[in-house]
# Entry
Amino acid sequence: MKRYSIFPSLGLLFMLALLILLGGCATNIPVAKNPPLYAQEKLRAVDHWDNIADSVATRVQKSLLDRNDLISKPLYVRPPNDRPFIMAFYNLLRTRLVSKGMQVSEQCEPNSLVIEYNVQTVLFDSGRTGWFPSLAGMGIGVVNAVTGKYTTTSDHEIIVNTRMVHNNRYVMHLSNIYYINDDDWPLYISPESFDPQADRTRTVRISR
# Structure
């Protein structure tokens, strides 16, 4: 009876592994890796906008408590443009600041701390769902579906940047990132921003 040895097969596997390793070293390109699994909020209601305003107001309050020289100075929120989210956030933020006991001025005063914010929209053109979702990801999806917290990712995200400045110095700079419904992006930024000839400073389009 003819006998077969496993050693040639093991040798072949070793050579293949060595070639792959050498090939990877030759290209000097990092291997793609997903970051650890975590949750990112998705905005689907005006109440969610109010939650952002409350979070920003809390950070403003903390920044002032850390600065005894600024805590008694008034705050002035600079008026924004006419997009629905921007306009709503302007009023929601002032409401939250006042409700937390901070001084908010109607007009900018010489000693005011100026609060400004802007919204940057990011559009991913490439597919964002992998072929093989992780077990942890599927587990979170099942739990969210049962508890009613389930929602889907989207191709559109926004970055809400808020800054507080005094005498040309940053007192606070905060950036929050959220998913938004794909059809809702005009609420956050002017449609002209997607025009190739329009101002690109507020919108980033990311393709494969």
About this structure: The first helix runs from residue 7 to 27.
